[in-house]
Amino acid sequence: MFFVTGGFSLLIAIPQTFAPRLIRSRFGDEITRIILQDLLESVDPEIRRKINLRCNVMVRDGSTLKMRAAYPEKTDPMGTIEWTTDQGCCGLAVRRQEPVVLNLIEFRGRPYESLLDPEDELPKWGITRDQWEHTRDLGSIVSIPIFSIGPSSAIIGVLNFDATGSKEEWLECEPYTKEQFLKRTMIVRRVLGLILMVQTNMNAL
């Protein structure tokens, strides 16, 4: 893990030092997309196609979560609207400061009204009607908080996976699949943390 994070740190530091800010930012986004592609390709291709598995990275700006990169790029349901740390699986992961897995099969394809509590009429996961219209086809979501690297770490982003199928169809389809998958993402999120830190520092300049 040291060599993985160290290698990516060096890779990012080169364009950060010698390239213009816009190019450096795009370089970081491209590295992020490569990482997301690699993560998805670790899942069986047949399963991946069957459940339309996708992933994305959100960057945290205060209480707002904004899309930074996605793979596949043109199949991201959450990038066109804004999310907060009080909404959805991504917000829940930030608040709990740990990975969150949601099974949405019982709500998939249903109208927004099905999310409302019968007593207080508040929606599940705090999501709005517009947000639900963009995600109602999903059957499962996994959100993993991304921490900054250093002595005083903080959550600076979220790594998300979503699928039209249930979590049993891909994350728990075989013994130890979930354990191995989450173990791998725990390593990768350190690299993503480094990338987001570099990009955040560039924006502050």
In the sheet with the most strands, the strands line up as: 3-2-1-6-5-4
Rg estimate, integer Å: 17 Å
How big a fraction of the residues is strand? 15-25%
Termini gap: 30 Å
Specify the overall morphology: globular
Count every helix, treating DSSP H or I runs of 4 or more residues as helices: 6
- Can you tell me the residue ranges where pLDDT is under 50 for at least 5 consecutive residues? 1-6, 9-20
CATH class: Alpha Beta
Q: CATH superfamily assignment?
A: GAF domain
Helix content: 40-55%
Largest sheet: 6 strands, antiparallel
The overall number of domains is: 1
Number of DSSP-assigned strands: 6
What is the N-to-C order of secondary-structure elements (H for helix, E for strand)? HHHEEEHEHEEH
CATH topological fold name: Beta-Lactamase
Looking at how many chains there are and whether they match, the oligomeric state comes to: single chain
Protein structure class: alpha+beta
The CATH architecture name reads 2-Layer Sandwich
Average residue-wise pLDDT: 85
What can be said about this structure in brief?
This is GAF domain-containing protein. This protein is of the alpha+beta class and 205 residues long.
Highlighted features:
single chain; alpha+beta; Beta-Lactamase; six-stranded antiparallel sheet; 6 helices; globular
Describe the structure.
α2 packs antiparallel against α6 (177-204). Residues 1-6 and 9-20 have low confidence and may be disordered. The longest helix has 28 residues, at 177-204. Helix content is 43%, strand content 19%. β5 and β6 form a beta hairpin. It has 205 residues and is an alpha+beta fold. Strands 3-2-1-6-5-4 form a 6-stranded antiparallel sheet. It is globular. It has 6 helices and 6 strands; from the N terminus they run αααβββαβαββα. It has one domain (2-204): GAF domain (Beta-Lactamase). InterPro entries: GAF-like_dom_sf (IPR029016). This is GAF domain-containing protein. It comes from Sulfobacillus benefaciens.
